[in-house]
């Protein structure tokens, strides 16, 4: 693969006593945002650190704009890195922290007013324009996170690494900044890597999403592909709000001969295209059921309610299917009581099937 963006090829890092990260491949085109998502500890921060040069890979290469970065020191790589830990300078004010990367040796000198204006513009967008004179010690966690974000975005970089850029902000600010950062980075025409443990944030900000599980990329695809066709049960378990339900069972011929899913009290015909594709005899499978694909009322499965949570425009019902806990998302707001028995209808259009052994989508 060649383009002028960022390319990671067979990048790997092993820490003693750990399973290790990679080898993994990833590319981000100029103007593209790729989100790197996965559970805590999977290696997202380590990937960012290998790109910026803070961590040396044991194998593989990072190529940016056609140039291999491994021989270059951190400051010569053209990487703007927002750290998950913020790493603010405690003796400098907020405005000085943000201006700091522009004052590094070798950077083109901006006039005093131009520098101040550039810093202020970012602080204003992040809604901390009034805090420029404060020291980091006098800021809340969310305010510190925004200073770190501004200090990254202020730079003229060849690639931006945003390691959990908005995770500690309130929901309203997160929504506002998400859209603003996306618009800005796309217009800049440089690659951006956005790391987040929140898979739904990843889907909403990125052109492509890399899902990282146990140090490897389990799926690298467009957001809708990751959402509608998760490559593995592990990806399915991460994506969605709530995430997809997984039910163990078996694919068997039903009355008419076409294969259907049978397991845990569910006996379900498959939609025509899936049935045609999977007509090769009985096999053990895992059924992926989106929470919105099940609705209360019906006889496709019988559940026992564990908890009912009304969220205004929809409700989440947590319920047991034998020994498996499922989540349903329903627009119905009628109340369900703990231990109530309910029948549900399953919409076959919302099904995904996985092989029970490989855990890969069928
Ligand atoms: N310097 C180090 N020495 C030993 N192990 C390390 C070191 N840095 C990271 N690790 C381990 O590597 C794994 C990946 O860590 P990393 O911080 O990259 O994960 P992450 O996906 O960014 O997690 P989080 O979302 O919690 O920030 C973890 O198991 C961590 O304990």
TrEMBL record:
<keyword id="KW-0547">Nucleotide-binding</keyword>
<dbReference type="Pfam" id="PF17912">
    <property type="entry name" value="OB_MalK"/>
</dbReference>
<dbReference type="InterPro" id="IPR012340">
    <property type="entry name" value="NA-bd_OB-fold"/>
</dbReference>
<dbReference type="Pfam" id="PF00005">
    <property type="entry name" value="ABC_tran"/>
</dbReference>
<dbReference type="InterPro" id="IPR027417">
    <property type="entry name" value="P-loop_NTPase"/>
</dbReference>
<dbReference type="GO" id="GO:0055052">
    <property type="term" value="C:ATP-binding cassette (ABC) transporter complex, substrate-binding subunit-containing"/>
</dbReference>
<dbReference type="GO" id="GO:0016887">
    <property type="term" value="F:ATP hydrolysis activity"/>
</dbReference>
<dbReference type="InterPro" id="IPR047641">
    <property type="entry name" value="ABC_transpr_MalK/UgpC-like"/>
</dbReference>
<comment type="similarity">
    <text>Belongs to the ABC transporter superfamily.</text>
</comment>
<dbReference type="InterPro" id="IPR008995">
    <property type="entry name" value="Mo/tungstate-bd_C_term_dom"/>
</dbReference>
<keyword id="KW-0067">ATP-binding</keyword>
<dbReference type="InterPro" id="IPR003593">
    <property type="entry name" value="AAA+_ATPase"/>
</dbReference>
<keyword id="KW-0813">Transport</keyword>
<dbReference type="InterPro" id="IPR017871">
    <property type="entry name" value="ABC_transporter-like_CS"/>
</dbReference>
<dbReference type="GO" id="GO:0005524">
    <property type="term" value="F:ATP binding"/>
</dbReference>
<protein>
    <submittedName>
        <fullName>ABC transporter ATP-binding protein</fullName>
    </submittedName>
</protein>
<dbReference type="InterPro" id="IPR040582">
    <property type="entry name" value="OB_MalK-like"/>
</dbReference>
<feature type="domain" description="ABC transporter">
    <location>
        <begin position="6"/>
        <end position="239"/>
    </location>
</feature>
<dbReference type="InterPro" id="IPR003439">
    <property type="entry name" value="ABC_transporter-like_ATP-bd"/>
</dbReference>
């Amino acid at each position: 693969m060649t383009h002028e963006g960022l390319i990671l090829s067979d990048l790997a890092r092993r820490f003693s006593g750990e399973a290790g990260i990679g080898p993994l491949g990833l590319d981000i085109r100029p103007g593209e945002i790729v989100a790197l998502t996965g559970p805590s500890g999977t290696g997202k921060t380590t990937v960012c650190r290998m790109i910026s040069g803070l961590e040396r890979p044991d194998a593989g290469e990072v190529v940016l704009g056609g140039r291999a970065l491994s021989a270059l020191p951190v400051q010569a790589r053209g990487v703007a890195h927002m750290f998950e830990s913020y790493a603010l300078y405690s003796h400098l004010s907020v405005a000085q922290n943000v201006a700091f990367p522009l004052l590094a040796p070798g950077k083109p000198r901006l006039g005093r007013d131009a520098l101040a204006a550039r810093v202020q513009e970012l602080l204003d967008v992040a809604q901390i324009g009034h805090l420029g004179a404060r020291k980091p010690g006098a800021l809340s966690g969310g305010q510190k996170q925004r200073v770190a974000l501004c200090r990254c975005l202020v730079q003229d970089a060849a690639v931006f690494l945003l390691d959990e850029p908005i995770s500690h902000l309130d929901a309203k600010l997160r929504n506002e900044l998400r859209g603003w950062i996306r618009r800005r980075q796309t217009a800049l025409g440089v690659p951006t890597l956005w790391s987040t443990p929140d898979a739904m944030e990843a889907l909403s900000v990125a052109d492509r999403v890399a899902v990282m599980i146990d140090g490897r990329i389990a799926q690298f695809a467009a957001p809708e592909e990751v959402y509608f066709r998760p490559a593995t049960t592990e990806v399915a378990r991460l994506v969605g709000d709530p995430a997809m339900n997984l039910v163990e069972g078996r694919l068997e011929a039903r009355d008419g001969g076409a294969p259907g899913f049978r397991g845990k009290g569910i006996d379900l015909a498959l939609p025509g295209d899936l049935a045609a594709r999977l007509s090769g005899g009985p096999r053990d499978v895992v059924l992926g059921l989106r929470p919105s694909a099940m609705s209360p009322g019906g006889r496709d499965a019988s559940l026992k309610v564990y908890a009912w949570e009304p969220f205004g425009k929809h409700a989440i019902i947590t319920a047991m299917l034998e020994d498996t806990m499922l989540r349903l998302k329903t627009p119905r707001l009628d109340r369900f009581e703990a231990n109530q028995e309910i029948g549900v209808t399953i919409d076959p259009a919302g099904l995904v099937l996985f092989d029970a052994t490989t855990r890969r989508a069928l």
